Amino acid sequence: MSPSRSNVSVRKQKNRKKEEQRENQQLASQWKSLQQNEEEASGEAEAGSQTQESTQEQAKAVESANTFRTSRQATTRFLANSQYFTIAIYVIAVVAIAAVIFKAIISLDQTITWIKNVLNVLMPFIIGFLIAFILNPAVKMFCRLLQKHTKIRKKGVIKGIAIAITYIILLGLVLVSVFGVVPQIVNSLTDLINSALTVIPQSASEFNQFLTQLHERFPSLDISAIQDAMDNMLPSILNYIRDFASNIVPTLYSLSMSIMQLLLNLVIALIVSIYILMDKKILLGTVKASIYAFLPQKRIPYIMDTLKECNDIFGGFVIGKAIDSLIIGVLCFIVMTILRLPYTLLISLIVGITNMIPYFGPFIGAVPGAIVMLMVSPLKAVIFIIMIFALQQFDGLYLGPKILGQSVGLRPLWIIVAITIGGSIAGVLGMFLGVPIMAVLRYLVMRTLKQRLEEREVKDIERFHLD
Fold first, then answer.
1. Which residues contact 221 (CB under 8 A, 6 or more apart)?
2. What is the gyration radius of the CA atoms in the chain, in angstroms?
3. In this structure, what DSSP letter does residue 117 have?
4. What does DSSP assign to residue 364?
């Protein structure tokens, strides 16, 4: 091989090796040794000695470098990639959630039963959370009063005294209700049963006289079917009432067991609520620490603002509706007393409790009261219905907006859905809590939709009626 050709070959090899050096900087050490070999080879070529041997050494060096680079690339294919790992975790989570949802929909009855069982187990804790949630404003008020009017400066002592005062007042109200209200309710129920045993036969006799007179005036009118139905229905009603009275002992036993279970749950709930109020800052701190530890930093202000708004919606409804229902119950008692209607305490209690359920609560509370009044006197039943209608108009048009404001903001359709689903899962408590939970879900959905529309720069968002 001539020296000129050897020089050309050496220059090509130099260029090729320089390109390989730019492609992979990790081979710097090998490239340095290779360059030394190339310089020696070029010196030997210029001297005209052992050209072929230097060319073979260069070829071996190039081959070793290419082999090392190939093995390096094959190794990098199996290195950990955090992006792919995150995608894999998301895929597994989505598949698992989809499988759970599919299983829950396929076995809907079992799912509802499981949810009810879980709620029964967690009910003392749920009630305890609600008690703490409702009593928290009172505890804050007593804390401010103690800081202002006493010389106590330790916050823990002030908070303990405020919680003690709050629960003493609550216990006093419970004792007044047990020893003052419950006996009157029992007497009212007893009088109601006794009056039913006398009023029902009397009403049936008067109705039969009416049918007889109607038949005398209109002989062609066939009323035998109505008379037979009345004759068969009256003994059935009387037998049912007598059976109920005779089975009062087992009924009272089962009722007492239910009351004992309820009292046990209430005791556990009270203890849970006390600990929640005492450790409120620790619990909130744990929640905030979890948010700051696991969620993206730039999303934390948005998340904290959203949680604050959800707390305002839920708390505004629960506390506001409790105050509103208390006022309505007291007003019902006062108005019924002025109108001299019977069973004032029993009916006022029913109206106040059922008023906690939005929209349908007033109607649910009015039906048993109207039936009771109808058994006493049809005129009093009409007066009671007019009174309830006026009271609910006052609540809906003036008192409710003043206390609740726009804390819920739900359309009637969504309130019906919330009450139906909540009632089927957790009974009366579910009917009450279903509305604020639905309001919170609606707020989250609407806020997410607004944010997405703003990110896409959609104009005239008001046309979507997201408020």
1. 214, 215
2. 41
3. H
4. H
Q: Dig out the tokens for 182 from the structure.
A: 């419950």
DSSP symbol at 221: S
Query: What pLDDT is attached to residue 3?
Result: 47
Q: Around Cβ 432, how many Cβ atoms within 10 Å? A: 26
> Is residue 3 a contact partner of residue 45, using CB atoms and an 8 Å limit?
yes
Token duo for residue 63: 């081959």
Q: Minimal CA–CA distance to 336: which of 396, 387, 386?
A: 387
Instruction: Name which of 6-15, 120-129, 387-396, 428-437 the model is least confident about.
Output: 6-15
The 8-class DSSP code of residue 25 comes to G
**Cα(113)–Cα(216) distance, rounded to whole angstroms?**
58
Round to the nearest angstrom and report the end-to-end CA distance of the chain.
88
Tell the burial category of 104 from Cβ atoms under 10 Å away from its Cβ (0-12, 13-18, 19+): middle
pLDDT greater than 60 at residue 293: yes
Query: How far apart are alpha carbons 435 and 106 in whole angstroms?
Result: 27
- Give me the amino acid identity at 265: N
For 458, the token pair is: 């959609």
- Please tell me the distance from the alpha carbon of residue 49 to that of residue 211, in angstroms, as a whole number: 140
Neighbours of 437 (CB within 10 A): 16
d(CA 332, CA 56): 110
Hey, which of 100-104, 178-182, 224-228 has the most confident mean pLDDT?
Answer: 100-104
The pLDDT confidence band at residue 164, using thresholds 50, 70 and 90, is very high
**Cβ count near 151 (within 10 Å):** 6
CB 166 within 8 A of CB 140: no
Encoded tokens for 107: 């076995």
Distance CA 208, CA 202 (A): 10
**What's the predicted TM-score (pTM) here?**
0.62
Burial class of residue 299 in the structure, from the number of CB atoms within 10 Å of its CB (0-12 exposed, 13-18 middle, 19+ buried): exposed
Mean pLDDT confidence for 151-167:
88
Is residue 322 within 8 Å of residue 329, measured between CB atoms? no
Question: Do residues 207 and 199 make contact, with C-beta atoms less than 8 angstroms apart?
Answer: no
